[in-house]
Amino acid sequence: MARKLPHVDVVLVGFGWTAAILAQELTDEGLTVLAIERGAWRDTPTDFPPTVAPDELRWYWRKEMFQNNARDTITFRNNRSQTALPMRRWGSFLPGEGVGGASVHWNGQTWRFLPSDFIAASHNRERYGELPEGMTVQDFGVTYAELEPHFDRFEKLCGIGGKAGNLNGQIQDGGNPFEGPRSSEYPNPPMHMTFAQHQFAKATAELGLKPFPGPSANMSRPYTNPLGCQLGPCSYCGFCEKYGCGNYSKASVQTTILPVLIQKPNFTLKTHNEVLHVNLDKSRTRATGVRHVDVQGNEYDQPADLVILCAYQTNNTRLMMLSGIGEIYNPATGQGLVGKNYCYQIMSSADVFFEDKYTNEFAGAGALGMVVDEYNGDNFDHSGLGFIGGGYIANWTTNARPIESQPVPEGTPSWGSAWKKAMAENFLKATSVGAHGASMAYANNYLDLDPTYKDAYGRPLMRMTYDFTPNDVAMSAFLTERMKEIAERMGGREIKLNLRDGPYDSMPYQTTHNTGGTIMGTNPSNSVVNRYLQSWDVPNLFVMGAGVFPQNAGYNPTGTVAALTYWAAAAIRSQYLRSPGPLVQA
Amino acid sequence: MTAFAMLLLGSAPAPLAAQESSFSQVERGRYAVATGNCQGCHTIPGEVPFSGGRGLETPFGTIYAPNITFDEDTGLGLWSKDEFYRAMHEGIARDGSRLYPAFPYPHFTKMPRDEVDAVYDYLASLPRVRKEKPENDLPVPLNWRFALRFWNWMFFEPGEFQPDPTRSAEWNRGAYLVEGPAHCAGCHTEKNLAGADKEAQHLKGGNLENWAAPSIRGGTHGGLEKWSEDEIVEYLRGGRNAHTAAFSTMAEVIELSTQHFTEADLKAIAVYLKDLESDEREEPEEADASVLAAGEAIYLDNCNACHVSDGSGVPRFFAPLAGSGKVNDPDPTTVVRVILQGARSVPTKVHPSPLSMPAYDWKLTDEQIAAVATYVRASWGNRGSPVTADEVGELREALKE
Amino acid sequence: MAGWKLSRRGFLTSTLITTTALLVPGAFARTISGEVPWLPGRANLPPAYPDLRFFTTAERSCIDAIIARLIPTDETGAGAREAGVTDFIDSQLAGFYGKGERWYMQGPFADEKLDTQGYQSEQPPAQLYRDAIEALDAHCEQTLGSVFARLEENQQDEILKRLEEGDLELDGVSAKAFFDLVLENTIEGFFSDPIYGGNRDMVGWKLVGFPGARYDYRDYLDHNGEPVILEPVGLKGRPAWTPA
Ligand SMILES: Cc1cc2nc3c(=O)[nH]c(=O)nc-3n(C[C@H](O)[C@H](O)[C@H](O)COP(=O)(O)OP(=O)(O)OC[C@H]3O[C@@H](n4cnc5c(N)ncnc54)[C@H](O)[C@@H]3O)c2cc1C
Ligand code: SF4
Questions:
Q1: Beta pairing, strands B55-58 & A369-372
Q2: Where exactly are the structural domains of chain B?
Q3: Which of the four pLDDT bands, split at 50, 70 and 90, describes residue A112?
Q4: Which residues of C are less than 8 Å from A272 in CB distance?
Q5: What is the rounded average pLDDT for all residues in chain A?
Q6: CB of A210 closer than 6 A to ligand 1?
């Protein structure tokens, strides 16, 4: 029997980036807010200080901070004719777990999607005609202009370092000329570039491209955010992506929000409590709260007026399915929306090996890099290319951690003396140029519940059916060619291309940029949530995260995820609380 | 924060006293209570403010602070204003027995009667909590309160603060706060064998509960010689300034007490402290070159990520070590302890982030901690004497309790 | 290694002794409000238990032979054997990793899997090693007349290549899964922090020039393509930390 707990105004499921933003916004409104997180309490000085943070085996290879596969994982197959098998350990992506979620161990590459990304369907149709058969790309239902102030808030919260390329419509030297107009400059200057970035900047400029510094949530200098929270300067420790930051220099829930939020009497955080599902009333159009269970196995019913899913894209989608909200997508019939338009990212790269120059990439940071954006989104003419979308091409120096980073030239065996020699010769003398490819929605890439495999509580795991699409493969090939031209000019002895062509492999790490499944849109027949991220079926339920993206753009998602969160929070504060109910009439 | 929440929520029925005293009187009392940091000793962190029970470790044993809410059985509920004043002014309890000077009546005696009455009114306005305090844990003869008579005769002179007419009003206000309610000497003055302040050492630094409290004299050769008045104010307000960050006991003092002071009062304190000259320091002993070399290696591999390779730190974020009063303190206890256990910069309204240093006790041996402490005490213009592995080992043991 | 006073053994034992006192409390549900919790002297310490053992003597010698071929001792310097990779793998398999405690190990286990579906063996890592070593040694004895560890180096390389390419069948266990795991663990043991028992004397890091568990490179960002020479450091230090 679940024990009934005292009522709160708002319950947030999970406590990562999106939940922390909402908690801060909604407690400011005077609401009592409870966040329920299934992972552990964790904080900088005890859990990932510099005394323990630089430990490759523990954090990445033994995955101490990521979602515990033993309890809950995802089954995977490339297409519907195959049998999905559980990801017994994470590989291609690494969902976060514990206080702060993935904000603790993200890189901090903090982007705004392009204005055209939000209207991908109508924009591309208008410019290039009908979308190909099977492609289910659609518009977000919200525009870049509407989100601009919210992007701005997140960048100031995080102390993003960068260089504006478009200030109120004025193109700025040294920034990204393709970005949407921004209302203000980044709050901090760009990161301190190293040798590899200088080579990349030179090569791209020679090719007539416009290199600019990647926007970084690693602090380029000490920063105090508008809430008063302090972030130290990044020390380029090289244990950033997949690691907690030991010296408070990466924007995370812990560094940007928690110190202020935790002091509010109307905020409470519960850890090691997993939300099992959203409770609905008899009409199934109203959420009454959530059912959760603590690690000791005690079950509780937490009543609330407003339930907001902040459990990351994969878990939000599954919670919708397990709660029986909306219909699960079925590609055979095209019916149902929950689980539809699952998208990812397609990454390829070109390694550059120098003969007598040292890149010393151990001195790096999660978002230290130079970028060109000429081949992203619709920044270039796609006529006759056979695909839409694109991606940024960047030279990031995030790390050189030797278990993970093994830059060896083409043709090197994977073990033995030749491998060892190649490692010894190239480890400090290589860098990599990467293309961050978009991922377009197709009818046959989707999420649903697995018929066979169960989680620790005996409930179905989520099943992922996904493969790279013809659009993405063509796009990636195009980007890889562009990348090759750049890499060849960077002054190295040789390069090695790492194409992404075969079927999508669930094991080698690419990115934790899973999108779709709870997509947003203009009406209940094409989306799970409306433009304010409010469930069409259950108006006192909101769903955050990249699950609402109808397809993924050629950038890292979190800037846009956070802007949408602020946007939804503003709608809740200014509209929903005044008259609770649907914010968009169906 | 819990205090704040309690005030807002007012879990107990509003006590009679609160209705009797005017709002401004209660407010005056609230401020006076903040200047005296009553909450610090009279509250177990996380429990209802002023409900007592917190143990104070003195060299003589543990003394538990009583419940000072107005519960009739376990608190001050039956005390009259006169009785309360007598306690504050003379250190005598309601039943006539003498209070231990861990209760800083030698300082509170400087407070004028109306100020003490305001404190009474404020405490009386708080929700009443029923809570017994544990018995003090003191060896004979100290638990024999009669001995206190002797102590008082030796070391205590009751009497309200007398302003020095040759000084500014501001200076006098500062002197009153420092020597009176704020009782800075409680930590920052070395004690004699009987636990009383050594007068010649006034505010030149002390050691208690295994922390070294630095000199806070601001004149020539004083611990705050390099601090400007504004920097003192900034520190007492926000817990951080260009020189340092507060942690441990001082963190609590700032959190519960000084961050709530008026700007004028903080300024007055600064003016007073800056006026206190001190004695020239002895030259430190030379450190062994091999110890310094090891210390430097440890420093560069562990400490630079926050304190920066040249010891400059990141002012107001990560404490600078170059020129730091704590690092240069003749008594290395604090430096060594912070390396062993870590420390947390106090979160304040100005600086809510509890930036913290991690513990190194599992990572570094006594010899290594001594080496790195010696290195930081001897580098970048610092003048602290070397630390030995034995000193580290003793503190490590002492902290295990 | 001038000045390195502690023996490796003493060094590791001292890690163990000092760490036990400091472990943060395990998993329990908490309600947090009011203040960011913090306690002095608490650290979430690395799960290092380099002296734990899983292998039998025969298993150890088989793995020792395999890892010595995967990262051989040669003209570029010390290999996996000198780095203590066998000890590393042994202790890892004896702990939570070997038991697959953080892996999803519920059935059913498929007979067939796609290359894109990752590890799908029924055995958690330690058991996979055990079964595979037994089958491998049996295979070697049958076809070449002696267990793997006693074969000539070129014979060993030949077998490893076939394991890698998946053209050697082992009884009751996926040869490819085994090979992939051993290679992965060997690289881990060669390059992970010495507190885990491998990368002894930081030989792996020295080979490639990785400076180890450092946390601040601000002073070197303007290297401009020149080498940055820094002695490697482990989580528990380097020789220079001890006064000469
Ligand atoms: C290694 C890595 C690098 C990344 N780098 C970048 C980058 O450079 N740029 C970028 O834009 N993005 C990056 N990301 C992605 C970014 O971290 C996420 O987009 C962001 O954290 C998503 O926020 P969220 O609130 O949706 O989920 P999260 O921050 O992951 O938080 C979700 C929380 O919900 C909890 N939870 C899940 N299920 C339940 C349940 N049933 N009950 C209770 N709690 C639950 C989880 O434990 C978790 O703590 C990276 C991610 C990873 C893993
Ligand atoms: S690279 Fe910078 S931001 Fe990232 S973990 Fe290291 S110090 Fe922190």
A1: unpaired
A2: 3-155, 169-274, 289-398
A3: very high
A4: 27-30
A5: 97
A6: no
With respect to CATH, is domain B169-274 assigned 3.30.479? no
Which residue among B297, B354, B361 places its CB closest to the CB of C240? B297
Report the SS3 class of residue A420.
helix
Looking at residue B142, its pLDDT comes to 57
Could you give the CA distance from residue C155 to residue B249 in angstroms, rounded to a whole number? 68
Nearest beta carbon to residue B368 from set C19, C42, C241: C241
Residues of chain A in contact with residue B347, where contact means CB-CB under 8 angstroms, are 259, 263
Residue B367 at interface with chain C, using a CB cutoff of 8 Å: yes
**What pLDDT sits at residue C20?**
33
Show the beta-strand stretches assigned E in A319-414.
346-353, 369-372, 391-396
Cβ within 8 Å, pair A263-B356 = no
pLDDT for residue C7 is more than 70: no
Spatial CB neighbours of B330, under 8 Å, sequence gap ≥ 6: B205, B281, B384, B385
Which tens digits make up the pLDDT trace of B74-112?
999 999 999 999 999 998 888 888 888 788 888 999 999
Residue A131 lies inside a defined structural domain of this protein: yes
Domain residue limits at A98: 3-576
Could you state, in order of their start, the residue ranges of all structural domains in chain C? 8-106+124-243
Active site residue A382: no
Interatomic CA distance for residues B155 and A499, integer angstroms: 83
Q: Output the CA A132–ligand 2 centroid distance in Å.
A: 43
B221 labelled ligand-binding:
no
Q: CATH number, domain at A14?
A: 3.50.50.60
**CB contact C76 to B (< 8 Å):** no
User: How many domains is chain A partitioned into structurally?
Assistant: 1
- What is the predicted pLDDT for the residue at B239? 92
Mutate to test the interface with B, among C231, C241, C242 (most CBs of B within 10 A): C241
How far is the centre of ligand 1, averaged over its atoms, from the C-alpha of A545 (Å)?
A: 8
Distance between CA atoms of residues C54 and C36, nearest Å: 41
In chain A, whose CA is at the least distance from the CA of B350? A228
User: Which residues of chain C does A40 touch, with a Cβ-Cβ cutoff of 8 Å?
Assistant: 27
In percent, the amount of chain B with pLDDT more than 70 equals: 91
**pLDDT higher for C142 or B144?**
C142
- Pairing type for strands B61-64 and B206-208 reads unpaired
Terminal Cα distance for chain B, rounded = 29
Ligand nearest to the CA of A98: 1
Q: What are the angstrom distances between the C-alpha of A84 and each of A74, A88, A464, C120, C237?
A: 9, 12, 8, 11, 46
- Say if CB C149 and CB C61 are below 8 A apart: yes
Q: Which chains contact A through at least 3 pairs of Cβ atoms less than 8 Å apart?
A: B, C
Contact state of C34 with B341 under an 8 Å Cβ cutoff? no
A356 located within any domain = yes
Tell which residue, A489, A58, A379, has the closest CA to residue A244: A58
Spell out the CATH class of B289-398. mainly alpha
CA–CA dist C224, A193 (Å, integer): 10
Residue A83 in contact with residue C61, Cβ under 8 Å?
no
Rounded mean pLDDT, A115-129: 97
Q: Which residues of C are less than 8 Å from A43 in CB distance?
A: 36-38
The pTM assigned to this predicted structure is 0.93
Q: Is residue A300 situated within a structural domain?
A: yes
Given a cut of 70, the residues of chain B with pLDDT beneath it are 1-21, 59, 139-149, 151
What pLDDT shows up at residue C26?
A: 55
- Between the CA of B9 and the centroid of ligand 2 the distance, in Å, is 42
The identity of residue A336, as a single letter, is G
Residues 230-289 of A with CB under 8 A from B: 230, 232-233, 235, 237, 246-248, 255, 259-260, 263, 265
Helices H, strands E: what count in chain B?
19, 6
> What CA–CA distance (Å, rounded) separates B366 from B344?
22
Per DSSP, the three-state class of B115 is helix
